[in-house]
Automatic annotation (TrEMBL):
The lineage of its organism: Bacteria, Bacillati, Actinomycetota, Actinomycetes, Micrococcales. Coiled coil: none annotated. It comes from Arthrobacter globiformis (strain ATCC 8010 / DSM 20124 / JCM 1332 / NBRC 12137 / NCIMB 8907 / NRRL B-2979 / 168). This is Fumarylacetoacetate hydrolase family protein. Residues 21-70, 115-180 form the Fumarylacetoacetase-like C-terminal domain. Keywords: Hydrolase, Metal-binding. Gene3D superfamilies: Fumarylacetoacetase-like, C-terminal domain (3.90.850.10). One of its GO terms (molecular function) is acetylpyruvate hydrolase activity.
């Protein structure tokens, strides 16, 4: 069946069983500044559970606080790679996140529209550092950092709420849509 004939709701998580899910802390200089934190001198890495990943459409049950993401998936195995080839391993794009609701300003509010040039540690450097300490496998996920514009950095603070729809898109690639719901 051609991809164009697959209904959008039939798409699932593109990395349904990643071996590893990494996240990079304070990797956008402007986000560190809005959080009143110093830009790190070295890569700050933490992990997430694979169960925190979702497909391109669906409902997200909100825990207390905020819901954020950045993603890139690896298309090939990487271990101690040399810089010129590292980007060849990436599959995915940086995402722009929008929160859709009905405020005085209109039905769409852009929260992230940042270029990756603001990254403290670019993707090739992240892959190089991670692959020096552990093998990276196809399907592994690396969240490259939180962009500026988070609810915690706003005055007044503003977080996702039940009923909000978060639309994430990459021009020329497509979009993801997630409706927020309260936890029971």
């Amino acid at each position: 069946m051609p991809l164009a004939d697959v209904p959008p709701e039939d798409f699932g998580n593109p990395a349904p069983e990643p071996r590893q899910v990494f996240a990079i802390g304070l990797n956008y200089a402007n986000h560190a500044a809005e959080a009143l934190l110093a830009v790190p001198e070295d890569l700050t890495v933490f992990t997430k559970f694979a169960s925190s990943l979702a497909g391109p459409y669906g409902t997200v049950t909100l825990p207390p606080g905020t819901v954020d993401w950045e993603d890139r998936g690896l298309g090939g195995r990487a271990r101690g790679n040399h810089r010129p080839r590292r980007l060849a391993h990436t599959r995915g794009q940086g995402m722009e996140s929008r929160r859709r609701d009905h405020h005085r300003a209109g039905p769409v509010r852009t929260h992230h529209a940042v270029d990756t040039s603001d990254m403290v540690f670019p993707v090739p450097q992240i892959i190089a550092r991670l692959s020096k300490v552990t093998p990276l496998f196809p399907g592994d996920v690396i969240f490259t950092g939180t962009r500026p514009g988070e609810g915690v950095g706003r005055v007044p603070q503003r977080f996702l709420a039940p009923g909000d729809e978060l639309v994430t898109y990459v021009r020329g690639v497509g979009q993801m849509r997630h409706r927020m719901q309260a936890s029971s």
